[in-house]
Amino acid sequence: MRRSSDLTPEIAEETAWWRDAVFYQVYVRSFADSNGDGVGDLEGIRSRLGYLELLGVDALWLTPFYRSPMADHGYDVADPRDVDPMFGDLAAFDRLVADAHEHNIRVTVDLVPNHTSDLHQWFQEALQAGPGSMERSRYIFREGRGFDGSQPPNNWVSVFGGPAWTRVPDGQWYLHLFAPEQPDLNWEHPEVRADLEHTLRFWLDRGVDGFRIDVAHGMAKPEGLPDMEIRTQVPGVLSDDVRDPRFDNDGVHEIHRMIRKVMDGYPGTMAVGEIWVKDDERFAAYVRPDELHLGFNFRLVEAGFDADAVRSAIEHSLAAVALSGTPAAWTLSNHDVVRHVTRYGGGALGEQRARAMTLVELALPGVIYLYNGEELGLPNVELPDWALQDPTWERSGHTERGRDGCRVPIPWEGTSPPFGFSTSASTWLPQPNEWDHLTAEAQLEDPGSMLSLYREALEHRKSNAGFAGEELEWYGAPAGCFAFRRKGGGLICALNTSGASVPLPPGQVLLSSGPMDGDQLPPDTAVWLV
Length: 530
Description:
By secondary structure, the protein is an alpha/beta fold.
């Protein structure tokens, strides 16, 4: 079991450290490559810990680095208690955790409890054992419909496109809400629960500080697996539709209570769930005192650059967590969505708006999740067809380009690809030639860069008393604008999404996302005042 002596004094002293922490999501394949194969790895992350400490983050979230055939870039896990050789080994992981703690950075890792890889030992045993076997009962196998069983058991569709069922040679079908290489586990089977507990303890005993639970609103399936309502826009995992029987079933909460019970035996650890549920009361159920510590809030991701939409997202998010007393967890980008520089219009406009929204997000009470590269202002990349690897591309019949555009490797230094990411010119996804001005090296000493804005904002958030207080008070503001104050701390954040400059609220400017216009707040700009 982990011991408090395993951590530096600064880390060990606070068990609820996560309540206002800034996490940094590392997409392991794309962060830093240490061995020249064009794919990021654990040693690459370790080599950049100094950069992360300089940036000012409190913790990392590592995407899956487990043994996997990589049908979904690691989210198809063949062995959840080992490191894939592509990323290193267990010794490399242990070194990363130890060194991160020396830098006073905690380490959290991804868990994928909804499904396994089709090459997982259990699934291979299920295929060999046949219908009615104990081995098959760990997954969701069913007989097909129709007189010869040639139709899927129900009409569910996969998040990645196509049917959610695949037929095996003996005639039965197995469920996969994602790719066929990701069969869904049967969470009513006691061995499935026991195995996750084993996995939790395995990594906790190695010193990890917490987990991100993939598809935390999945896992539990409704009794009888009823048909879903098929509409023109088929709801996927990034949806909130009470008519969709695939997700947010009540039985999932028993699973999270089991996870919490294990983690309560490891003081100072935490779990955050990927919860694509917008109903405030249903969302709050996931973060009750005996369930997850935090739930990812995606309302800011879904809101456009519009003051009313952003304010609504903030108010709903705070209302949801107020029901349970846990902090909100905010994010603008992650490995599954278009980067926000691009979402806000791309180019100079998108960057200007992204800078503004960064100040809005970092002014909010609660937990912040940054996605690697957003501090550099990276946009989504329009990749050529030949480079696309996301399973969505093939499963959709080449109609959905997938998520590769937000996963392009990080540019660290130099003037041409691979920009210090690797010693190999051939990276797993190609980098644009024009990223030379976006490298960490180019931005580090530029006071006007995106990286400098993040560093300064994170330093203020950590050291300025104005950021105390967990409640917001809203000011009256012109159309297309808003301003709020952190109660107890006094920091004021104002945002202008209108097309004209507006008067600033009262206060002294602490930080602005762009050039100011006297006592006026320009369009597409945010400001902090004290």
